[in-house]
Amino acid sequence: MRPLTTISPTTLNVIGLNSGTSMDGIDAALFSISPQPGQSNGTPRLAFKLLASELVPFDPAFKKQMERLVASGEATLRQVCLLNSTLGEIFAQASQSLIKKAQKQGISVDLIGSHGQTIWHAPIPGQFFGMNSAGTLQLGDPAYIATLTGVTTVGDFRTTDLALGGQGAPLVSFADQVLFGHLGHAVGVLNLGGIANITVIDDHGEAIMAFDTGPANVLVDEAVRILFEKEYDDEGKIAASGKVQEKLLNKLMQQPYLSLAPPKTTGRELFGRTFAAELVNEWQAADVMPADIVATLTAFTAASVVAAYGDFVRPRQKLERLVLGGGGEANKTLVKMLVERWPDKLEILGHEDFGVTAKFKEALLFALLAYTTFFDIPNNVPACTGAKRKACLGKIVRP
Question: What is the average pLDDT across 50-73?
Answer without folding.
Answer: 89
